[in-house]
């Protein structure tokens, strides 16, 4: 795979929609669709992993999710760890072999899932689940990298659309852990990722060819990009967490600061070493940091929107609409199942439109869908919510597939594993931020609305606090509006719960408005930035054409 620095720099400056850097593609291999099946199956298994709170971590029922604070700290620390291993997995794949690292990560995730079945206590289960996440983080970026290497032209777009759809369904499939745990115990929740992971391992072992960076590992651009990504992503995560917690000394911000410092140290040491060894080939061959930061920002925004929308809607169906956990998960199906009918159209649209139209338009569709969904209340008919979910799913499918295409074109093709790792790491930061930020908005807005409702009933602040405690008690006891045997105390409780569900829907609406505004803002940035890149590429092409004449 010969890819000199001049090719990389030229691609970075002129890319619009179709990458031109040569790379070791197997797009003429008749087994390429089996390679896609292997990558999609492994990725689905990794996305379908149930969360720890579904299979052992007991979170007390509480109004507006206030009992989740301890778990969110644990999950946020895990996000930072997995971000590092996403990047490490991509780099190791380029260095040692992408098939090899994919198999090591997938085998490790499956084995630690099996070990989790034998966990004697919560501490052991937590450590084993952390190892599942680490091994999955090694493998996950390489599923995307191998698709980039295997397919070319319009087939690559089609493959990325399929991959985006499958991984999105995997996110929803992780919710199956809730009914599996309820019906058969928490160990049953691990059956799906274990079985699908084993199938993916077989397909990857049989069909995926080996590949690595032929241009030589250790190029200036590679480690510089990796180090800057660690600095940028960890700093962004830490700053937001400091803002939410009101202090710089919370464990998440401190850990993020350590990750940022490590990335900065790597950046400084590597720059000095590269200059001493004459590895620095000039600014024209370097991926500019502002350019890489914008790439990471859009990648994070896509995951922020997807995970935030799924979490908020699930909470709305489960709490405000009082649907059982399994049914609340099934109610999210239109987000992705509707895309089954437009996969071919989405592939054609992504190929035929400039990147700024598909990426910016897709993000805008996601934002509009979230703003419209924010209008829903507990008594809103489900049929009226389905079109919003389908609009969101279509927007995400188009924006994500097109963005993956552009992201790979904008970074060195010889280091496709690293590029995938950066993309997935940014996605993890986005999903982590959505889980914490939107949950905080929901809690603050929902609590404020609930207190206003109680104030309208002339309750004092002390009585409002008692009312919130009563909601916590009702949640733990499972009081629902469908209870038939209503003692006087239960009647009071039902009225209180009705007010709580209304307030919860207001909290969800506030969170969705924020998420929608973020997607629309990033859509505007992507539109104007990618449009500028396209114009620059067109101007460069015209200049070259005139020079040749």
Automatic annotation (TrEMBL):
PROSITE patterns named among the record's database cross-references: MFS
Region of interest: Disordered: 1-24
Record's bilayer topology term: Multi-pass membrane protein
Domain spans labelled Major facilitator superfamily (MFS) profile: 35-534
Subcellular location(s) of the protein: Cell membrane
Top-rank taxon, per record: Bacteria
Pfam family, one: MFS_1
Residue spans crossing the bilayer: 33-53, 73-92, 101-120, 126-147, 159-178, 184-208, 220-242, 248-270, 291-317, 323-343, 355-376, 382-413, 425-444, 503-530
SUPFAM superfamilies, per database record: MFS general substrate transporter (SSF103473)
Major localization class: membrane
Keyword terms of this UniProt record: Cell membrane, Membrane, Transmembrane, Transmembrane helix, Transport
Stated name of the protein: MFS transporter
Annotated organism of origin: Candidatus Chloroploca mongolica
